[in-house]
Amino acid sequence: MTEILNSYITSNLIVVLLVTGGVALWRAISRNKLWREAFRSVYRRRRIAVWVCAVYLAIGLSDSIAWVGGGQVGTDAVARHEAKTLLDRAFGDKKEKSYSAPFADAEFYAKSPLRFPGKHVLGTDILGRDVLFVTLKGVRIALLIGGLTTLIAIPLALLMGVLAGFFGKYVDDAVFFVFSVLQSMPSILLLIALITALPKSTLSVCIALAVTSWVGFCRLSRGETMKLRELDYVYAARALGVSELRIIWRHILPNLTHLIVITFALTFSSQVLSEAVLAWLNIGVEGSWGQMIAQAKNELSRDPVVWWNLAAASIALFGLILAINLVGDAIRDVLDPRTARENQ
Amino acid sequence: MTEKARVFSWLSAALALFVLLACTNNPYPETDDGKHVLYASFGEAPKSLDPAVAYDTAAHEITGQVHDTLLEYHYLKRPYTLIPGLATAVPKGEPQADGTVVYSFELRAGAQFQDDPCFALDGDGTRTREISADDVAFEVMRIADPLVNSPVIDPFSNLSGFAEFSARLTRLLKADPGFKKLPARERYQRALPLDGVRVVDATHLELRLKNPYPQILYWFAMPFTTPVPWEAVEYYDGNHGHPHLADHPVASGPFMLSIYDKQSRMLLERNPNWYGAKHPEWRAPGATYPSEGEAEDARAGRLAAAGKALPFLDRVDFRREKEAIPAFTKFLEGYYDTSGIIRESFDKMVKDERLSPEMQALGMRLDKSVTAATYYIGFNMDDPVVGSKGGERSKKLRQAMSLAIDVKEYMRLFMNRRGVPAESVLPPGIFGYDADYRNPYRHVDIAKAKSLLSQAGFDGGIDPKTQKPLHLTFDTPDTSPDGRLRYQFFVNAWRQLGIDVEISATNYNKFQEKVHDGAYQIFMWGWVADYPDAENFMFLLTSDMARTKNDGPNTANFSNPEFDRLFLQMKARGNDAERLELIRKMRAIIEDQCPWIELFHPEDYLLLQEWMKNVKSAGLSVPTLKYQDLDPALRARDRAAWNKPVVWPAYALGALLVLVLAPGVLTFMRERQ
Amino acid sequence: MLAYIVRRAAYSVVVVLGVLFFLFALFFLVTKPDDIARKAIGDKAMPAVIAQWKKNHGYDRPLWPGPGHMKDNMLVEHYRRMLTFDFGRSDADDSVIMDRIERGAGPSLSLTLPEFVLGLTFGIGIALFVAFFRETYIDRSAVVLSVLAMSISSLLYIIGGQYLIGKELRWFPISGFDPSWAVRARFLALPIVVGLFAGIGGSVRFYRTVFIEDIYKDYVRTARAKGAGEIRIMTRHVLPNAMIPILTNVVTEIPFLLMGSLLLEASFGVPGLGSLTVDAINANDFATLRTMVYIGSLFFVVGQILTDISYTIVDPRVRLD
């Protein structure tokens, strides 16, 4: 399978799905008083962080909507035939020959004049690419890593956890065994083993990250389901002859949603950080901030020092992780009844 | 509280003491400061130290120093000149009536191997023995042995009977499963004769070549043909708790490997059994510092040690440095004695091709030399799109792609211009290199490239079959972020023509698999000379050496009967006018066919600390450590001056912490009272 | 209690067998031994040499048990080797894996042990300090600082430490290792400091939550009502009661100390097990890689059992059965 994720049609499709899903979710939330209140409360606590997340999301989306034709291309004759995203079009073709400092008029080392003097807010890298542009391109990758991984891991974990917790017995034994096995391998080693054995692609990295991260949530949802199973209204529903799948759907799952939301936020950031470590070991995802940092680390030894690459990638990564961590904490504080009580 | 406070203060005092003790960046024990120890670094430990197998520069860095060879290169003279090493003289080829050529070596009598427990196989308590011509013959047979898997079977097949000997070994292996388990000596006995290698007596060895191949002598200046004791091969088999020969050389050179920890350290120490150390009175050319060299050597003080007995160093300590930058930083701190220049610091080190004044003030010196190597982008000529099957069309495509690559820009971005742009296969310093030759396809001309591309049927880079930009694949085993940037440079250049080249960076395994199956289009490769002769470069494009068909080093799978014919003529000749003419003809074929985009011949910039003596870089991978020397007192002085730690930030940080915390702590305590 | 431990250990054995099967699937079904052989000994190697290499490394058997080779197959051989700790030789350079593990454990431990002890001391110490000053600017800024610290990628701590402390201030060597203890201490100082900084945010935040939770509990109120001083409350009441969550966190990690730290070792040139693993990745040395994963999982299950035992020691109320 050649990188399906890189096809612009898939990319557009994902945008459409995400937007529709987002709108549907929004409507669902605004109808439900409890959730509406919760989210309002999160927003009130972490106004800035929520907006930062939104900006990242917007950049990621604008870098996912792509079509062929139009746009500036400059000397690159192939680019005319390739799909370009909104972000590409907004930036146009601003390539230089090599390094230039932020807002510089001339090349950093060769001192020859630039094609676009003063236009590079964060300078250019060794191949003359605008660093701001490259960094913003990383947003989509980061969101893809965090999002895709979480989207693989959570449903899987939920399915296994709920089945195990609800049906118990053999199902539970089997699930418990599988996650005992996965959990007992140190996650970084398991990740490395998976990535070296799987074909090299973004999807492989995401799958590997998902395999190493679903265990925790599976355990949580299993435990929670076990508790819910014993509640009176579930017994009542059973007594009335409601089918088991229906009980799961109507009574168990809705009571797990707050856990899902919390876990989503908390695993998201750890996935992005893990990928940075993988990039350091040369097995990360093409174009990620981790890869940028790995490439830029040697530039600190240049004289005079080239700092803007490292700074751009680090700050972009830090900003996303911090924002998501803060929002995630706020969500947990609001939604998790245990901490909510303690914080009063 | 009081008791705890006391314990706590003791603990913090101990911690502070630890920090004070540890607070120096000297990576070596102080006890070694005054010794003649050379500090060097290595990235990856050599894969094998078996002299019949070790082929890369990293391995030769060790095998070259511990193994003595029959012949050696003169340390200072250029072009490279052979001098006798373990042999008493450089033999001359004696053409025979039947067309064969004979070379007679005489070995130094009385030279010994290093001390090693493996010699106990000759009798209890024996620690060493004398080197015999049998040991050299044994090593040549090992090269033929399929179980040894030597990479240099091809050149040695010029010895008469060598290929047959090797084939007999293979046959015996297949026929009898027990054969493999026999000791190597026994196996070779059964596969004889090998009339190309005749042991006359303990000190005389006769080689017979089935056809003229004057380059054979160079192979006797490389560790491949060092004497190897059969005891070592038998003893170091990797079983019974003994290491494998690949990790434990038993040799006869000036140094011996006393610590070999692939993860962190390799240590060479003087070999007391070396003939130079035992018999300085012989004043053997391989054990005495040369008294003549080039004019520049006298100026650089490289003749001051003339006539002194080698070696000068007591130990050479190789420390593992996985990354170049920390290693270079340590060099600047005085903890390594010589160093290449990392790309990142080049502009600080070198101004206008000379050492920067800043570094000159530190006493450093810069030694430059062009490496006998050629780097190129190759096309797989078996590929239907870029290869020879596409005929004229593909040729024009290759020419167009060559015209788009601006190697000077590449060298500026990635190599600080350290190198010579390559116009042909041969690097400078090799007979046949022509500094005035200009390859018309190796000078950027986008307009011409585009017109060639149109003629090839790819107008504007559009593939008529798909109506999309022509899609090609650039295969590489390099997955590093840095490699990515380099390949992107080429991709960007081709995109100007409208050709869409995808970088396929797979791991080494997959890459080898692709190369093995011939499933590749474009690749980048470099070839570093084994020995200074045009034959060693031109053979890379002969059809016998084709990668896919014969597993040879001709990765481009270039095949041209005329080229092959010229090659055979060129190979057998000495360096004369006719040979030059043959090389010109071959060059013209390559220029037109364009199986390679020749990129550059790298230039080596070696930085030397003030205290280093007698260092001359060689463009070939040849042993040089026995000639080098250093001044430990000067080194100790400079190191002390360069490495004073900056301590004020520690105090500043502590003070800041107290300032920030104090008001809170004080008010809080007051309130809680 | 004993019965529980035995049952627990038995289950752990089953889990480890499961891990081994997982590794078998990953490294024998996905990767072909021929490729590994060609990579290790060169593309030009003759089929006979490849066969010999595969034999030396035990890759010359049929994959699954079948008639005629019920015992002599890769699956059984894989289990036999791993369970008897006969890990064989590295795929990349033929070195004996067990030797390399033995040699790497020392350097790893000399990095991770001090880092672990110091990290724990500082983490708990600072968290106690912060919890003591709860609801003041010290507490609030500590919480903010630790979230900030957690959001920084560990790569940046490494880059920053090497650049600032190593290169600019020249306090310690940038990277490397030496067997002699006096020199080794110099080399280890920088990775330990960097490791401490990278981990401190998370641990302060974690332990602070643990302590704060306890501070608001009834027994603390009682103690305070009885006139106990704040310091006494923190050290005599809160700290011992918070031991269970601390233990869960700590004991599981102890066996992993032997495994070393992948990132720190690789970046600072410490030739421990972490470096061994990184080298194995770069060299596609699957034999070493799967051994490391296996050993890691062994350590994990041992850690789990140790944790359970330590519960009963710290808190007599906990009874395992």
Task: Give short descriptive properties of this protein.
heterotrimer; A: 344 residues; mainly alpha; two-stranded antiparallel sheet; 68% helix; elongated; disordered C terminus; C: 321 residues; 73% helix; flat
- What is the CA-based Rg of chain C, rounded? 24 Å
**Mean pLDDT metric of chain C:** 83
Total beta-strand segments of chain A: 2
Q: What would you call the structural class of chain A? A: mainly alpha
Order of helices and strands of chain C: HHHHHHHHHHHHHH
CA-CA gap between termini of chain C: 6 Å
Helix proportion of residues of chain C, in percent?
A: over 70%
* Discrete helix count of chain A: 14
Main interface by residue count: B-C, 62 and 54 residues
Number of helices of chain C: 14
Structural class of chain C: mainly alpha
Poorly predicted ranges of chain C: none
**What best-fitting shape of chain C do the alpha-carbon axes yield?**
flat
Beta-strand residue percentage of chain A = under 5%
Q: Globular, elongated, flat, extended or rod-shaped: what is the shape of chain A?
A: elongated
Percent helix of chain A:
55-70%
Q: How would you describe the overall organization of this protein?
A:
The complex is a heterotrimer of chains A (344), B (673) and C (321). With 344 residues, chain A is mostly helical. Chain A contains 14 helices and two strands. A two-stranded antiparallel ribbon of chain A has the order 1-2. In chain B, strands 11, 14, 15, 16, 21 and 22 form a six-stranded antiparallel beta sheet that branches. Chain B is 35% helix and 17% strand. Chain B is globular, with a radius of gyration of 29 Å. In chain B, α14 (391-404) packs antiparallel against α16. In chain B, 43% of the residues are buried. Chain B is built from 24 helices and 24 strands. Chain C is mainly α and 321 residues long. Chain C is flat, with a radius of gyration of 24 Å. The model of chain C has no long low-confidence stretch (mean pLDDT 83). The interface between B and C is large, with 62 and 54 residues.
